[in-house]
């Protein structure tokens, strides 16, 4: 899909050091866009990429940092988890509101917002409870009768778009597979770290989740698919003022996927048996083992907490509900990118090993 910018177009990627944001930066740079990355701390320098550092939770900091920025396209991928959904709404809805307020002088043409499937499943406090739509999830389902920070973010986006006259798109991803370090929700790197610890200790590679996830159908989102869809929606009329589900396009069962991941990672797979076996329990004593692995292989990140997000993978694979997403809407609108999820996992494992985040498989 041709995403070459026209003269005068430029992009601002919010959360540019995260899994999704980094993939969007890659997509835009590959297409020839001038890109500004906004994050709390700047990332690596690259041709065509300029960094702006700001605290997204501070309206004053955003106003100061963005005072001279004039992007035409904005890609918002950031969020900060809070203790309650009321706080999630205040903080994460506020970040969208304050960022767009700081950009009022800019000639905005389109703002793309990344959210997720909690739009259909409910917020952390009421996740999977009450009446949910049937799977596969469709974009035209009404909102759930529960407070949700995704709804708050959407409402801030809609209000700003109506006031300023730019178009918008919302992108509802499932579990995102991609490259990042220190991310709070990184299943790919978490599973690679689990396997490395299993190889070191001689433990089997035990599936941590529920019978429903082991046996049922599911899907995930490659960060490159998300990036391509967000850039596509922002540069084609068919993407204007629409919400889109964003997944790879294939479906799978973990009982099929788990042995294939284990074979690539050099570990013995063990599936679901009787009850979930969360990684937070399996890996409770893994800190010293990780230190040994880091020393032996000269890895670049000694802090296991910045490598593995045990809690998130436990929550994702521990769900007792089916989660499958329909992609028909964007397909019919012209977005045709499709990834095979097994390939997404294996390529990601290899990249993490090549970048010395995890040891190579011998």
Tell me, what's the shape? globular
User: Structural class per helix/strand content?
Assistant: alpha/beta
Percent of residues in helices comes to 40-55%
Largest sheet: 7 strands, parallel
CATH homologous superfamily heading of the largest domain: NAD(P)-binding Rossmann-like Domain
- Radius of gyration, CA atoms, in whole angstroms: 20 Å
How many strand elements? Answer: 13
* Tally of individual domains: 2
CATH domain fold name of the largest domain? Rossmann fold
Average pLDDT for all residues: 96
At CATH's second level, what is the architecture of the largest domain?
A: 3-Layer(aba) Sandwich
Specify the oligomeric state: single chain
Helix count?
A: 15
Q: How much of the polypeptide forms β-strand, as a percent range? A: 5-15%
Low-confidence stretches: none
Query: Which strand order spans the largest sheet, edge to edge or round the barrel?
Result: 3-2-1-4-5-6-11
Beginning-to-end CA distance, first to last residue:
38 Å
Protein name: Nucleoside-diphosphate-sugar epimerase
InterPro entries: NAD(P)-bd_dom_sf, PRISE-like_Rossmann-fold
Pfam families: PRISE
Domain PRISE-like Rossmann-fold: 70-359
Describe this structure in words.
Strand 1 (11-14), helix 1 and strand 2 (35-39) form a beta-alpha-beta unit. The strands form four sheets. Strands 3-2-1-4-5-6-11 form a seven-stranded parallel beta sheet, sandwiched between helices. A two-stranded parallel ribbon has the order 7-10. The radius of gyration is 20 Å and the shape is globular. It has two domains: 11-176 and 220-246, NAD(P)-binding Rossmann-like Domain (Rossmann fold); 183-219 and 251-323 and 339-355, no CATH class. The chain is of the alpha/beta class and 362 residues long. It is built from 15 helices and 13 strands. It starts with 10 loop residues before the first strand and ends in an 8-residue tail after the last helix.
């Amino acid at each position: 899909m041709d995403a070459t910018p026209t003269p005068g177009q430029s992009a601002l990627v919010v959360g540019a050091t995260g899994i999704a944001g980094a993939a969007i930066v890659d997509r835009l740079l590959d297409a020839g866009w001038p890109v500004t990355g906004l994050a709390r701390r700047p990332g690596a320098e690259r041709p065509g990429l300029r960094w702006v550092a700001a605290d997204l939770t501070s309206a004053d900091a955003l106003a100061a940092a963005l005072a001279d920025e004039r992007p035409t396209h904005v890609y918002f991928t950031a969020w900060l988890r809070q203790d309650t959904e009321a706080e999630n709404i205040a903080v994460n809805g506020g970040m969208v509101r304050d960022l767009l307020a700081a950009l009022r002088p800019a000639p905005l043409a389109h703002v793309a917002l990344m959210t997720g499937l909690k739009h259909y499943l409910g917020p952390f406090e009421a996740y999977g409870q009450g009446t949910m739509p049937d799977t596969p999830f469709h974009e035209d389902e009404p909102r759930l009768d529960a407070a949700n920070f995704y709804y708050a973010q959407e409402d801030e986006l809609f209000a700003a778009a109506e006031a300023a006259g730019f178009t918008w798109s919302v992108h509802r991803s499932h579990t995102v597979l991609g490259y990042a370090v220190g991310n709070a929700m990184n299943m790919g790197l978490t599973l690679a770290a689990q396997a490395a610890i299993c190889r070191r200790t001689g433990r089997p590679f035990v599936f941590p989740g529920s019978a429903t996830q082991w046996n049922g159908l599911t899907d995930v989102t490659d960060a490159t698919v998300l990036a391509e869809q967000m850039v596509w929606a922002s540069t084609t009329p068919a993407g204007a003022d629409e919400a889109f589900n964003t997944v790879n396009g294939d479906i799978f069962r973990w009982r099929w996927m788990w042995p294939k991941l284990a074979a690539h990672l050099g570990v013995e797979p063990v599936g679901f048996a009787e009850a979930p076996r969360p990684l937070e329990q399996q890996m409770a004593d893994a800190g010293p083992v990780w230190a040994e692995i880091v020393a032996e292989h000269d890895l670049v990140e000694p802090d296991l907490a910045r490598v593995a997000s045990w809690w998130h993978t436990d929550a994702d694979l521990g769900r007792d509900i089916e989660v499958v997403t329909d992609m028909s809407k964007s397909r019919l609108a012209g977005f045709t990118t499709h990834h095979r999820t097994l390939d997404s996992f294996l390529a990601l494992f290899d990249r993490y090993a090549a970048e010395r985040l995890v040891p190579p498989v011998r």
